[in-house]
């Protein structure tokens, strides 16, 4: 299908990625972001092989690899420091062609942003309406102006306005019961591993090491929605006081003002479709999931590559969006279910006996079982964005 005109609502990782993909196949694209500046200031992110492969399909994989730090060492521990399982990043690289990598979200966002011409990025503007009554065009109200588009991609996050209007009967995002505090250290820290998770009763602490020596850390635990702390670092130092090194050092290396705090919401009720007319949902707007598998951004990147590829091979937008929905909805919703279950067996597990049984099972599991659990979701091959590809 020939190139058309698209409006992407949301300038996060998924929105920028799909804009890159659409431009790569010859479409004109406008990305509309309500924030005054395009700057994803979140903490850090791990990208599995499926996310890296999607970035390769979009033409930005090499730039991301160069800025990221491979995760060869690490694994899952208990608060006292003992290991439940070890991660073999070299084995993953041999099997998939890449290890998991860690990168600041702001760096990934910048690399995606610079792959787009500045004139296609509109900031400080909010989409207030999307009119789907014309089967051949979509009218998008952006502030006081109206834009016509052949396609609208809703990448407007877990609280997507467009999703709510497409499916008014859907209950929307639900609170997972867990809250997360996270930050990037102010400077380099000495770490013995590239990546770690530590599971206690109802709590998790983890870190991702970056190429510049800094690290992202996150703390997840059960909490009523909306609870906030006047001194988050003091709260965490108290909560994780008897947990192993380097947790105290990571907290000590962090400025108080750098700590981000978000309640974790997800789409528990699966959507009946990711498309309606010429509007497609992407990323968290379509399948917001808990972070327990590290697959949220990777699934958004898969969405981006798949949508662009569908538009290359299909004869019209309607056929392309139907193919996108058929390809992406079953997989991403299955990953979301798996992430929810991983949380229940990981950070959300609170009963001492259940925690003990889980820990014993993990310690006794062969390394191939741990590797297989990662491969189940990471071993994904993107479709080609080249014309006439099948």
Description:
The chain is α/β, with parallel strands linked by helices and 390 residues long. The chain has a domain at 5-71 and 97-173 and 266-345: FAD/NAD(P)-binding domain, CATH 3.50.50. It is built from 13 helices and 19 strands. It has helices at residues 13-24, 49-58, 61-67, 89-96, 105-113, 161-166, 232-239, 247-252, 284-287, 296-313, 317-345, 352-364, 367-378; strands at residues 5-9, 28-33, 44-47, 69-70, 74-77, 83-86, 101-104, 121-123, 127-131, 138-142, 145-149, 151-154, 174-184, 195-200, 203-209, 215-222, 260-266, 275-276, 279-281. It has a seven-stranded mixed sheet with strand order 6-5-14-15-16-13-17. A six-stranded mixed sheet has the order 8-2-1-12-19-18. Helix 1 links the parallel strand 1 and strand 2 (28-33). Helix 1 runs parallel beside helix 10 and helix 2 (49-58) runs parallel beside helix 10 (296-313). The longest helix has 29 residues, at 317-345. The radius of gyration is 21 Å and the shape is globular. The model has no long low-confidence stretch (mean pLDDT 95).
